[in-house]
Sequence to fold (1039 residues):
Amino acid sequence: MALNENIKFDGKLDGVIETSGAAVQEKRAVIGSAVTIIVLALAVALPFLVQGFVVFQLTMVMVYAIAIMGLNILTGFNGQFSLGHSAFFAIGAYTAAILMDKFGVSYVWTLPLAGIIAFGAGFLFGLPALRLEPIYLALATFALAVATPQFLKLTPLEHWTGGVQGIVIIKPDAPFGLPLSQDQWLYLFTLAVGFLLYIAARNIITSRTGRAIQAIRDNPIAARAMGVNLRLYKTLTFGVSAFYTGVAGALAAIVVQFVAPDSYTLVLAVAFLVGMVIGGVGWLPGSLLGGAFILFVPNIAEEFSKGLSGAVYGVILLLIIYIAPSGAGGLLLKTVEYFGKWRK
Amino acid sequence: MELFLQLVLSGIANGAIYACVALAIVMIYQAIHHLNFAQGEMAMFSTFIAWQLMQWGMPFWAAFPLTIILSFIGGVVIERVVIKPIENAPVLTHVVVFIALFTIINSMAGFIWDFTIKPFPTPFGTAPVLGGGLLSAHQAGMIAVTLIMLVMLFVFFRYTSTGLAMRAAAANPASARLVGIRVGWMTALGWGMASAIGSVAGMLIAPVVFLEPNMMLTILLYGFAGAVLGGLTSPGGAVLGGVIVGIVENLAGAYIPVVGAELKLPIALLLIIAVLVVKPSGLMGRRTVQRV
Amino acid sequence: MAFALRPILAMTAGAVALAATPALAQNAPGVTATEIKIGNINPYSGPASAYGVIGKTIGAYFNKINEAGGINGRKINYITYDDGYSPPKAVEQARKLVESDEVAIIFQPLGTPSNSAIHKYMNGKQVPQLFVATGATKWNDPKNFPWTMGWQPNYQTEGKIYAKYILQNHAKGKIGIIFQNDDYGKDLLKGLKDGLGDKASMIVSEVPYEVSVPTIDSQIVQIKGAGADILITIATPKFAAQVIRKVAELSWQPTHFLNNVAISVGAVIKPAGPENAKGIISTAYLKDPTDPGAATDPAFKEWAAFMDKYYPDGNKLDGSTVFGYGAAKTMEQVLKQAGNNLSRENIMKEAANLKNFEVGVLLDGIKINTSPTDFAPIEQLQMQKFDGEKWERFGPVVSGESS
Fold:
């Protein structure tokens, strides 16, 4: 599978920006920071402007965005493919739920633990699976997604997982007596976690390790010749990707207040994949668009027809793909290139 | 021991289902080098067409070939209309388009024919053939038809110029174009054939599992597993792989204590992945050498 | 169940106090002089979309009510959303219904996982989660969850009835069980085992199946191989049909018990072959539209006329249409009883005040009864045996307590 061919536009986007002179570049950087600050300010203000359940929806959008970001690190920067990220999402969710329900751990501390356990699971899964060629890796991860609900309801584990009934957890209040509703607090909490993870992801990608990871994507054989330990880096990337998705799963459990095997089926794994492609493979901010797509488009499809909502969803998906075959990121790249030419 | 033999036999019967689907997967992989996630749904839809034709009074042996022809046309049309516009898009974009096709076809079938199960007739009858009902006439017939399709495909890809051209177009489109192969039409033809084979698989499977819109939902995974186990380039391997998946799954369910029954599919898949780690091109696939 | 019930318990006292003084309570949000908003959540997409028929039937029935002028001059504004059988989506949709659409109640949300996910939210918000479409036993818990009520008989009751019958008639039998590995399958299995009590050692084989398997043939081979002479099938329609056919193909003749989610003659027995189903024992609470006797039943004529006029696309073979019709009629009765006092407290109070209500599509002798301490509307079942053509009911109507 020629997975590696068309997913490098994150680098290209940077390239387009870098080719303009130093002064322009500086100006662009200032604009970039300004945009980030404005977007953040808007994001912080948002939960005070809309209804409680919309705040809940937006929180879920961010949760899905974090999960997609995890998948994007794997696919966009390392060229690997996963249809099984619902498994790591589930591991994170159940870690948080069990810690809160059985051990009374505060929700804040469940996040790093969920991430670490998901990292471990991703790393262990990656060790054998990454020896496989991409198409077999697709099967292995596909199988992982199908097997996840079956593991979660396994009878011997019922004491911990609640079996088929799942676990109900309690939604946290805002700390320090802040005058915020539970929804608003969880929104801001998720926003903060998501922003931190985004900054961390950007730093990883531009670091030495990040360059090694991308070298593997672009030319594995050359990367190996340069002394990059292919298997180690690939497996580590898988682990990091699972970490992100696991943290997202823990957040989802806290926000939804409930975990059950039926929440983590193949449908969820497919949704992550769709969200990533819609946002743009390899363009991290696109993850947010992907998250919004996962949450809102089924609702839109349902407005058209109850019986045919699946078909309407599919048609919307097709139309978006025709307009932007490489997702929102690809569309942005094209626009930037177009205006670049036009200026010259 | 008797139980063991019974489980193996019923595993073969199930495996025949997987083998049918695996064969269709190998077919489309040869033609387009992609795995089509909507393949199962296309087969389901074809089977519903056959069922509808029979409801309208058409005899089985008229509905059967007509469905194959309609499915072939349907496959070509889908390729021309849906796939052609994005032929140069990245692989993942194709995957998403397959997912879109999947939901569209599944939802339409539910809308048109609803979700109650429908019995689908078998041309072979249901009399027990072997092992006191473990292998029915239909299941034996299914295995026979699968083998016939296998031979036909083998001959097609090995000895006909169209088959060779199709393989060339999939393996190396640029070079194929240089030697005068119409790559675009080869792809469309591949879709048509895959759709036709899928329709045969669907019509063979429906009498066993009952016809309903979600009939192929997970059979596709089993078929996928069988195809990969056997080697994606080998029709014979696909059939063998499908049967092995059926047997292994049955034995795992019965003989592994505590978790076997609840995890029979994951255990079977784990074994397949273990095989692939040792033998990366599958049991009967050719090793592809990567060019630097 | 690892529930944290404490916060709800604290709330309950307040809710009961409120319910005691309904005259003072205001009408619920979503209620005006001409309209009452009722929310619903159903899986219209995804793997469980077969059940979406229930939500559509309810909508059709409310259309019928509205065309006849509504209830007390109020038309029902029925808002139904799709959750794709996914618990997180169910939470989103329930919150949308309650907080944005401002419905008075949520009626017949479907599925144990989805209802579990919104259980605490609905009770915290004190919005009725009325007549949920799942047979889990936990919905009958008025003390801890005063805003949630089931409708159909619970699965454990059904299991207990089979256990009792087996102990009385086949005390020396060897039981083999095939069950769907999810909340419903395990609940029914638990009732069965509780009913067998210390005779649970009669079970020689107990094999789960996942809804994702293509066939259950090998599970049946395994159960037969274990030497069982009683087969209990806890399966949804498609798999039940496969079981019936496979048992016949194996020329196996166990005493076969079949759970009542899969007793539709049209949707299960006919596809599996009526001759193969002869002698199967089951229970029932709903009438079967494909029963040859149905054509002359006045209640069924009414149902058939309703289907023809308001839901012509609906499949009359599908038992879900009867189910949805019965549930919607129960809802209609509650609203009629509540009259012009349509506060959420009073709707809940009247839902817990159904006395010998007859739905028409329930078997003769089965009536809906609820009280403030009994949140299980349908508790009675009758045993029946398939005679090769239709179900023959036998024995008395039995309820959960008496078995």
Observations:
- Residues 52-78 of chain A form the longest helix (27 residues).
- Confidence is low (pLDDT under 50) at residues 1-20 of chain A.
- Chain A has 15 helices and two strands.
- The CA atoms of residues 38 and 219 of chain A lie 38 Å apart.
